[in-house]
Amino acid sequence: MLQSMGKEISSFPLPEIDESHDSTRGDPREIIEESSIVVERDDMNLPDQLNDEQRSAFNKIMNAVGSAQGSVFFVDGPGGTGKTFLYRALLATVRGNGDIEVATATSGVAASIMPAGRTAHSRFKIPLNIEEGSYCSFTKQSGTAKLLQMASLIIWDEASMTKRQAVEALDMSMRDIMGCPRSPFGGKTIVFGGDFRQVLPVIRKGTRSQITEATLRRSYLWDCMVQLKLVRNMRAQSDAWFADYLLRVGNGTEEVNKEGNIGLPSDICLECKGNETDLERLIDTVFPNLNDNLTDPNYIICRAILSTRNEFVDRINMKMIERFRGDVMTYHSFD
């Protein structure tokens, strides 16, 4: 293609391909990728910034990593208590020591905010149609198996959202590749995290009991897990009442009305009048003085409007775009 346009690849300032890893070490691609991760300088300072709860969890996990005897942890904490912050501190410490750590999460969004994070289904080759007794789709000789064998620590965030059968499939597969059939996860140190107050495993047309039965709490592995709790809400430090309110709702201790519903305080609600002004008022409330703050990154990243359906998202986005000053520019692309 380049030659047809009178060009050569040397005409472009592309970095040279370094094949030394493949030729001299013969390591699988998965191990080369994990070994090549560069730890950000700011992340190396994260362990010094942990609060008391996070510090306690950090020390217990790192002691298990250092002993190499294998432990299974579950970090239980509502949103905002700093689970991801703790994971990043662990990642930086283990990788900074030259060891391999595997960072995964149930959802792509959660995986994307961890350095070199991957979804658990992608990293562990978990079957899409998971059943009781299923194994992960990798062999003992595969790069994935060798990566897990070499890993000093494995993290799986948002495990509360996944079906227990997926976690059990990883457990049985790791017992097999590690040659330790009696040790959970083959004797590896693994950290699960999540919040059972939030989204649970999705069971198509499932009843409450079926959904509960699919959670990790119903797994034979649950009793093997050391529980580490995070309670202090770091995101809502300036609003202690709201943090406590969220915790009461999540724990099911908030008062309900006669219909069994929880009433939201009026000061955090926007009245719905059932007309076209509702969306305009919502935007004005969440994004006041929008055009005056468009160049302020902190203004933009500190607020958002969430919706349950894509069609509503499109409506909100169109309304927002209509408010932007300036001329509309149309750019055409071709495949």
TL;DR of this structure?
The chain is of the alpha/beta class.
Overview of this structure, please?
With 335 residues, this protein is an alpha/beta fold. It has two domains: 29-229, P-loop containing nucleotide triphosphate hydrolases (Rossmann fold, 3-Layer(aba) Sandwich), CATH 3.40.50.300; 270-324, no CATH class. It is 38% helix and 8% strand. The protein contains 14 helices and six strands. Strands 3-2-4-5-1-6 form a six-stranded parallel sheet. Helix 2 runs parallel beside helix 8 and helix 4 (52-67) packs parallel to helix 5. The longest helix has 16 residues, at 52-67. The radius of gyration is 24 Å and the shape is globular.
Based on the structure given, which CATH architecture of the largest domain is correct? 3-Layer(aba) Sandwich
Quaternary status of these chains?
single chain
Q: Provide the number of structural domains.
A: 2
What is the mean predicted local confidence, pLDDT?
A: 89
Structural class: alpha/beta
Stated plainly, the CATH topology of the largest domain is called Rossmann fold
How would you spell out the order of helices and strands? HHHHEHEHEHHEHEHEHHHH
Beta-strand content bin: 5-15%
Rounded Rg: 24 Å
Proportion in helices: 25-40%
Please report the number of helical segments: 14
| CATH C-level of the largest domain | Alpha Beta
Order of strands in the sheet with most strands: 3-2-4-5-1-6
Assigned CATH superfamily of the largest domain: P-loop containing nucleotide triphosphate hydrolases
Q: What's the number of extended β-strand segments? A: 6
Low-confidence segments: none
- Ends distance: 15 Å
Q: Main beta sheet: strand number and arrangement? A: 6 strands, parallel
Shape: globular
